[in-house]
């Protein structure tokens, strides 16, 4: 019994740890998309809310899997699990039709597949000359089936979008229509104003960091300019000194410089020798003039004669 109770206690602890980690993972993972939406929309105003008395009904646009709310004057779409709304040239999206709108910094890819004149076709029950018996889809049914309808290609295979004798457009024609709609979208005044605002917001952000370092860099640049001017002056001096040192080391120039230095002392002793020679010549001429050395032997002879 003791072992069984220990096992039960251990199993309960493991279950608690398992469920605790699961809850922690959910808390961490779930807020990520909502946080991203909030960060994208910082500094951009949100559209005014649309009041619905009941969840809105939608219709599907032929040739697409885009759903639109036909009973309001504002273009409000449902596509790929999101509600989409265009306001003042900016796009917003939400998982709810009446709250939590967040700014979307792009044009959704489905938008250029939607014919801009769909409201007139809806009013006339006519899609390019064909009877259009559209179906109004409640919100609950939409949320339950939108994904499976797209995967199974439900509207084109079974219902043909409610258009009688429906003929799908060829792909080149659809691409040309997308290009034309994109050009028309870029020419809208509210879209152009929004693009100008984005550019104005980006310019100061880019210029401010550039202007600040420029003022700080100007001072060191001025200080650097002074040594930069002096450097070329010092360089030629060093080069000249090197050039002056190089010929001193060269053998031929060294020999030429040594030769005059050796010749000069040779000339000087010549003059000294000449002077010495002259001095020696002078006493040679004066030697016979002295009488004293010649008289000395005469005295000796006189003494000899006296002794005799």
Q: Radius of gyration from the CA trace?
A: 57 Å
Number of helices: 9
Strand arrangement in the largest pleated sheet? 1-2-3-4-5-6
- Number of E-type strands: 8
Look at the helices and sheets and give the structural class.
Answer: alpha+beta
pLDDT averaged residue by residue: 73
Low-confidence stretches: 2-9, 26-42, 247-265, 283-299
Q: What's the helical proportion of residues?
A: 55-70%
**Beta-strand residue fraction:** 5-15%
Our measurement of the CA-to-CA distance between the termini, rounded to an integer number of angstroms, reads 174 Å
H/E element string?
HHEEEEEEHEEHHHHHH
Largest sheet: 6 strands, antiparallel
Q: Please state the oligomeric state of the protein chains shown.
A: single chain
Give the CA-based shape.
Answer: extended
């Amino acid at each position: 019994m003791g072992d069984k109770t220990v096992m039960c206690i251990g199993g309960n602890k493991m279950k608690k740890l398992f469920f605790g980690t699961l809850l922690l993972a959910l808390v961490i993972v779930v807020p990520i998309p909502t946080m991203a939406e909030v960060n994208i929309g910082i500094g951009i105003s949100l559209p005014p809310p649309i009041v619905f008395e009941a969840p809105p009904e939608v219709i599907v646009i032929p040739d697409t899997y885009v759903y639109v709310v036909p009973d309001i004057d504002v273009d409000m779409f449902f596509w790929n699990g999101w509600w989409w709304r265009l306001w003042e040239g900016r796009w917003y999206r939400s998982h709810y039709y009446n709250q939590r709108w967040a700014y979307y910094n792009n044009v959704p890819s489905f938008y250029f597949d939607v014919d801009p004149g769909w409201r007139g076709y809806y009013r006339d029950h006519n899609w390019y000359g064909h009877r259009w018996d559209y179906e109004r889809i409640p919100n609950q049914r939409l949320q339950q089936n939108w994904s499976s309808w797209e995967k199974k290609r439900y509207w084109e295979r079974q219902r043909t979008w409610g258009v009688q004798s429906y003929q799908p457009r060829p792909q080149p024609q659809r691409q040309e229509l997308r290009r034309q709609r994109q050009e028309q979208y870029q020419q809208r005044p509210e879209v152009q104003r929004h693009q100008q605002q984005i550019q104005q917001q980006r310019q100061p952000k880019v210029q401010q960091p550039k202007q600040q370092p420029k003022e700080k860099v100007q001072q060191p640049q001025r200080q650097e300019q002074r040594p930069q001017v002096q450097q070329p002056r010092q360089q030629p001096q060093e080069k000249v000194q090197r050039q002056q040192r190089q010929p001193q080391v060269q053998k031929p120039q060294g020999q030429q410089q040594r030769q005059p230095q050796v010749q000069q002392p040779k000339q000087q002793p010549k003059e000294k020798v000449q002077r010495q020679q002259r001095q020696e010549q002078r006493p040679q001429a004066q030697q016979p003039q002295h009488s004293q050395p010649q008289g000395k032997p005469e005295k000796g002879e006189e003494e000899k004669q006296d002794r005799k």
